[in-house]
Design goal:
The complex is a heterodimer of chains A (427) and B (153). Chain A is α+β, with helices and mostly antiparallel strands and 427 residues long. Chain A is built from 17 helices and 13 strands. Chain B is mainly beta and 153 residues long. Classes of the chains: A alpha+beta (427), B mainly beta (153).
Chain lengths: 427, 153
């Protein structure tokens, strides 16, 4: 395999609905933004593309990625679609990485989109729940918020995690997004407001859960040689990892923790793993990505993380899967202030504020979650962070992580069935 | 009768686009489980090679790949985790609030997703003993079984 770099990225403004633009035009906007940002790269240097969108039900247009391919004028170059639930964008990013790393392409476009506004929210929830076993799970009351709620109830039982700790994640991500013009749902919240918003599935309220969105995002990946020619500050992708777990939560084993380099078996003597409280696929993704990137202690060696916070609870669970803290410590990790941005006022007491910002963009909770675009959106934000160009692209410097050297992006599909982790490094 | 075209907007032009479909869905190798529910049986499966026991059945073992054999689970178990859904997918909205549980059984290595009824939602707890109940008129769906608190048995 050869080194792969990200040389450009673009995002559309995520919104509840974009009836004036279809998926082709949304991707086109993000694509044109990207090419404008890399003026020395011309379209004829792009060798092919990987498209990502989650649901044929939402789109009701099979092979929609082919329509994007022709809209962008990329025919007859190689193209394919990648689909993997909520992790669709992360899988697409890694598929483009594979195309360049293998030597098959010198430059590969990754594009992703979702148009979720064409059905009402509850029909949308029904579509998403079809990504659970339709014999055994969906008919019982198929509802992803319910599945994650059951997972965090067990997390609370095992580890003492509290709803207030979860609410702190919501406060953090919505407040970060006040400085991100791409975000759909930026706002200042208090823990009390999160808890008093309508209950969706106990203990998760409306403010614990991301919204459905229309949006698109694209990334351009290139070989070292091409990246050096077309981009002043290319960002190297130094690690990719992915993992999986059984579709049915009921089938998850109760065994031993998969250990990261900085952990010992004695840390988890009495923990049955992953059960339904943890994401084994996320731990596997992190382990593989860290091994490739040579990371021994993620808390010390990462500058920021953009992770898949479809739920406040899954952000806390993911701190643990990624080894930012030990299993069971995720609630106390957010309380410590570590995953908040330095220099922003959240209206909370945060003793270690800003040591390792998580979701400086606002994450899915505040940016929105147009599924096929989401994992690529994270890559674009990470790219801008590592280039030091957040101020240029967001018109606001406040989300720029100072001296950002290494970032992790994390994409996650339904109850942890597919998870990706990728490591990006500053030039 | 042709109802005409329903428009939601003209710039951009947005219209109602109806879609529905019937499937011939086979439970295939999982069929005995659904037949079992009509006889008041909760069938799990056990690996014929390694003995791993599935409370939600599957015909082949996730661990070793060997075939499993059917096994009647006990009709009582414990709540492993739970949630009360106040919203849901569109088809389930009219049933809200409903409470989902994962059930653990003696002698099974995995869990089973179901609903709990006959209890106030805020009284459901992890570790609560529950007993299986079966529909008198089966719909041949997994919802032909649900659970109630065991102390009401």
């Amino acid at each position: 395999m050869r080194p792969v770099y990200m040389v450009g990225g673009g995002i559309t403004k995520f919104a509840k609905a974009h009836p004036e633009k279809d998926f082709r035009l949304m991707v086109k906007e993000a694509y044109d933004y990207t090419l404008h940002d890399v003026p020395r790269l011309s379209k004829d240097m792009i060798d092919g593309a990987v498209g990502s969108y989650f649901s044929d039900h939402f789109t009701r247009q099979l092979k929609a990625a082919s329509m994007v391919q022709d809209y962008l004028g990329l025919c007859p170059k190689p193209s394919k679609r990648v689909e993997g639930g909520g992790a669709t964008g992360g899988l697409c990013f890694q598929s483009a990485w594979e195309a360049v790393a293998s030597g098959r392409m010198n430059c590969c476009l990754a594009f992703g989109f979702e148009t979720m506004s064409r059905v009402n929210t509850w029909k949308g929830n029904e579509f998403i729940a079809l990504a659970s076993d339709t014999n055994f799970d969906f008919p019982v009351g198929g509802f992803y918020s319910g599945y994650y709620a059951m997972m965090v109830q067990r997390h609370m039982y095992e580890f003492g995690t509290t709803v207030e700790q979860m609410a702190m994640v919501s406060v953090k991500n919505h407040a970060n997004a006040l400085h991100n013009p791409y975000a759909q749902k930026a706002k200042r919240l208090t823990i009390k407001q999160v808890r008093e918003s309508p209950m969706v599935a106990t203990p998760l309220t409306m403010e614990d859960i991301c919204t459905m969105s229309d949006g698109a995002a694209v990334c351009l990946l290139a070989s070292e040689e091409l990246a050096g020619k077309v981009c002043d500050r290319p960002v190297k992708i130094t690690g990719v990892g992915s993992g999986s777990d059984a579709m049915r939560m009921a089938d998850r084993p109760h065994g031993k923790v998969i250990l990261l380099p900085h952990e010992r078996e004695s840390d988890y003597q009495h923990l049955k793993y992953p059960g339904v409280h943890s994401f084994r696929g996320g731990r596997m993704a992190a382990k593989l990505a860290y091994e490739m990137a040579g990371i021994r202690n993620p808390l010390e060696e990462l500058s920021f993380v953009e992770l898949h916070d479809a739920y406040t609870s899954s952000e806390i669970q993911t701190y643990e899967d990624l080894g930012l803290c030990r299993y069971g410590e995720g609630g106390r990790f957010v309380e410590s202030g570590i995953p908040f941005l330095p220099g922003l006022d959240y209206g909370l007491e945060l003793p270690k504020q800003g040591r390792l910002p998580v979701n400086p963009s606002g994450g899915l909770l505040a940016c929105g979650h147009p599924v096929g675009a989401t994992g690529l959106m994270q890559a674009v934000f990470a790219f801008w962070q590592l280039q030091g160009t957040i101020g240029k692209h967001l018109n606001d410097e406040r989300l720029q992580v100072r001296n950002a050297k290494r970032g992790l992006i994390h994409s996650h599909a339904g109850t942890g069935t597919y998870i990706t982790a990728s490591i990006l490094e500053a030039p | 009768m042709d109802k005409g075209t329903v428009l939601y907007g003209v710039d951009p032009l947005i219209l109602l686009d109806h879609y529905e479909i019937d499937y011939h869905h086979s439970y295939a190798q999982d069929s005995p489980f659904f037949v079992g529910l009509t006889k008041g049986q909760l069938l799990g499966s056990r690996c014929t090679a390694c003995g791993y026991t599935y409370a939600t059945p599957r015909a082949h073992c996730m661990g070793c790949g060997a075939a499993t054999s059917w096994l009647a689970l006990p009709l009582t178990g414990l709540v492993h985790t739970f949630t009360t859904c106040h919203y849901g997918g569109e088809v389930f909205l009219k049933e809200t609030p409903f409470t989902l549980i994962l059930v653990e059984f003696d002698g099974a290595d995995t869990l089973f997703l179901s609903r709990i009824k006959g209890i106030r939602p805020d009284a459901v707890r992890i570790g609560l003993p529950v007993v299986a109940r079966f529909a008198k008129a089966p719909a041949f769906k997994v919802t032909d079984v649900w659970f109630e608190p065991a102390d009401q048995a």
